[in-house]
Amino acid sequence: MSAEATNPGAHSRRRGRPRIDLRRLGRAALLGPAARDRLPDAIGHVADAHRAHHPDADLAILHKAYVLAESSHRGQFRKSGEPYITHPLAVTLILAELGAETTTLTASLLHDTVEDTEVTLDQVRTEFGAEVCYLVDGVTKLEKVDYGAAAEPETFRKMLVATGNDVRVMSIKLADRLHNMRTLGVMRPEKQARIAKVTRDVLIPLAERLGVQALKTELEDLVFAILHPEEYERTRALIADNSSASGALDAMAESFRSVLRDAGIAAEVLIRPRHFVSVHRISLKRGELRGTDLGRLLVLVGEDADCYGVLGELHTCFTPVISEFKDFIAAPKFNLYQSLHTAVAGPEGAVAEVLIRTHQMHKVAEAGVIALGNPYVPVEGAEPADGERADPTRPGWLSRLLDWQQSTPDPDTFWTSLRADLAQDREITVFRADGGMLGLPAGASCVDAAYAQYGEEAHACIGARVNGRLATLSTVLSDGDTVHLLLAQDAASGPSPDWLDHARTPGARIAITTWLAEHPEGAKVQAAAPRRPAPVTADRPAAANAVVDLPDATVRLAGCCTPVPPDAVTGFAVRGGTVTVHREKCPAVARMKSLDREPVPVRWGDAAECRVTLVAESFGRPRLLADLTEAIATEGAAIVSATVEPPSQQRVRHTYTLQLPDAAGLPALMRAMRDVPGVYDVSRTQHPAATA
C-alpha cells in the first residue's frame, strides 16, 4: 500500500497550502543552506507555518536545531529511501501547522538525534537548554518502549512516566506516529496491521484526551484504511459518488451568511467535510446518505456572546432539530473542547449539522493542548484557572493517570482499568453541591463521582443526594445531575466489595481494589450504633382535627403521608363510613383517582394538635438515639412510637410517630432534629399504604 493510498486525510487539507514534497526536502537537506544569512530551503516550510501562528517567533534556535539534526542524521535513510532528516522535518511541520510554540518545534527537530545518532542529552542541554533537553529525553524514552502485544500493560505505564508532567512529549510522539502512518506503505502488511492496532488502541484515545482532533481524525482514517481496506474503499467510492451533492451545504452556508449579515453579526461560515471514518459511521447509522451528511457547517465568530447570538438567529430563521443541541461552551469537555452543536432544517427540508465557536475555540478544538503554547511562560494579566484546565500541560485526567500508575503495582490491573477508560466515547457532566463540575464517563455512578471529587476520602462515602433526593451509591448518574455526596464522620470507614460492581472509572476501581487488598478481612469498620429496639408505643388517641361535610363520618389521618395543618388535603370514603385524609401529593391519591374513587372535600378544623410521622437519616454513632429523643422532647412533641432500623453502610434510619401540641411547630421540630450531630436528613414519611 502506497503512502498516498494510506493518506485519506489529504482530501481535507487546508486549501492554498501546497503538499510538501518530502523527496525534494530530502535533497535540500543534503545540499544544506544556500547562504549563511537565511534558513535552509528544507526548513523554510516549517518557518512559514510557525510564523503564521507566532509572528514574533525567534527562528534562530530552529535554524540551530536543524543544522544539528541534519548533520547528525546525514547518511541515514528511511526504509522508503528518503534521507532520514525528512522525518523530523515532517513531524516538526505537522506541529508547526497546529500552532506549537518554538520550544516544542526545537525538540521535535531533535527528537531522534539522541536515539539514532552520536548526539547526547548533555550536548542538547548545553546547546538548547534544560527544557528542550527534557522534551527530547521524554520522546527518547517513548521510542524505547516495546509496543509488542505481550508488553502492552507495561508499555502504557512507561509512556505515562515518560510523559511525566509535560504533555508536549506526547504531542511530539503523536505527530511522529502520524508521519510514520502516512509512510507505512513500505512495510510488510503484517507489520502495518500491528502498528495500526497499537495506534487505534493507544495513541488515538490519547489524541482524543489531549484534544488534538486534527491528528486524531487523520490517524483514524489511516488506521481504517489498513485494518478495514474493503470498508475504506467503499467509503472512498461513496464520497466520490456524492461529490456533486455538496450543493445543498453550499446553499445553506450562503443562507447562513445572509441571515447573520442582516443581523449585524460578523461571522465566517465554512463547510467542514467529514473525514472517512465519520462518513463510514454516518452511513452505518442512516443508510442512504443525503448531500448534507458529507459535511458540517462551521460558524466562527469573535466573542463567546456572539456564539449564542448566532444560535438564536439560526434557530429563529431555520427549523431547529432540538435533540441535536449541545452546549459545550457552558460545560466544556474534559479535553478543552468548546463549541455549540445544533442542527437546522433548510426551506427544502435539508438538515445540516452546525458547529458554532469562536476563532480561539476552533484553534483549541483542532490542536488541543498544542494550541495553548508554552505552559511555563505565564501570560501577562491572566488569572490562574481551576479544574481540568488549571495546567494545560497536565490536564486533570493526566494527573489522575499518573496517580493511578503510582498506586497500582500490578501493570495488568492498571492496563485493564485504563483500557476501559480510554474506550469511553461519551461523557457526562454532573454538578457538585458547591457549584463545581465533574466530568465522568456515561454510565458512571455515585461511587465514581465520590472518588472523582474526594479521592481516597471517598472511602467514607455512605450515600448521596441526586437532584435533592437521597440515593444509593449504585445510582447511575445522568448528564446535568446535581450530586451531593455524604461522608461518614468515622475515618475508619471503608468501601464494600460490591462497590466494584458500580464503579466505571479507573480511579474509583483502583482506589477500591487497593483498599480491599490492604484490609483482607473485607469488613468495614463501623461506628457503634444502637441495636434495633422494640417499638415503643403510647396509647394516646389520634387528634384528627380534619373536618368533612358528611354526617356521622369518622375522620382518620392517613399513615402513609401523615398530613398536618396547613397541608393541602383530600379524603376518600372507605368501609365503615370512615374518611381517610391524605396530602394531595400523596401517591395514594393518584392511585385512588385511577380507580375512579370520588374524593371527599376536607378542611382543617380549629384544633391545632396533630400527629405526624418523621423519618431521620443519620450516621451511626453512640448516644444518637438519646440525643434525638432529647431534641424531640425539647420541642414539646410526644413520641407515640419509634423504630430504629439496623445500621447499613454506616447509615441508620429512625422512624418516629409524634404528637404535636401545635402543627405550626413542625418546621422548628424538624430543624431541631437536623441539628443533632450525625443527622443529615429529616423528612415527612410518604410511603404507599396498603389501603386508603
Concise synopsis of the structure shown:
The chain is α+β, with helices and mostly antiparallel strands and about 700 residues long. The chain is about 40% helix and about 15% strand.
Structure description:
With 692 residues, this protein is α+β, with helices and mostly antiparallel strands. It is built from 24 helices and 22 strands. The strands form 5 sheets. Strands 1, 2, 3, 4, 5 and 6 form a 6-stranded mixed sheet that branches. A 5-stranded mixed sheet has the order 8-7-11-9-10, with helices on one face. A hairpin with a 4-residue loop joins strand 15 and strand 16 (578-583). Helix 8 (130-143) packs antiparallel against helix 9. The longest helix has 22 residues, at 189-210. The chain is elongated, with a radius of gyration of 33 Å. The chain starts with 21 loop residues before the first helix and ends in an 8-residue tail after the last strand. Residues 1-40, 147-152, 378-395, 522-543 and 688-692 have low confidence and may be disordered.
Secondary-structure blueprint:
Layout: H1 22-31, H2 41-53, H3 60-73, H4 86-97, H5 102-109, H6 113-116, H7 121-128, H8 130-143, H9 152-163, H10 168-182, H11 189-210, H12 213-227, H13 229-241, H14 247-262, E1 268-273, H15 276-286, E2 295-301, H16 304-317, E3 319-320, E4 326-327, E5 340-345, E6 351-358, H17 359-367, H18 396-407, H19 411-422, E7 427-432, E8 437-441, H20 446-454, E9 461-466, E10 469-471, E11 482-487, H21 506-518, E12 536-537, E13 546-548, E14 554-557, E15 569-573, E16 578-583, H22 587-594, E17 599-600, E18 602-604, E19 610-619, H23 624-634, E20 638-644, E21 651-660, H24 666-674, E22 679-684
Parallel strand pairs: 2-6, 7-11, 14-16
Antiparallel strand pairs: 1-2, 3-5, 4-5, 5-6, 7-8, 9-10, 9-11, 12-20, 13-18, 15-16, 15-17, 19-21, 19-22, 20-21
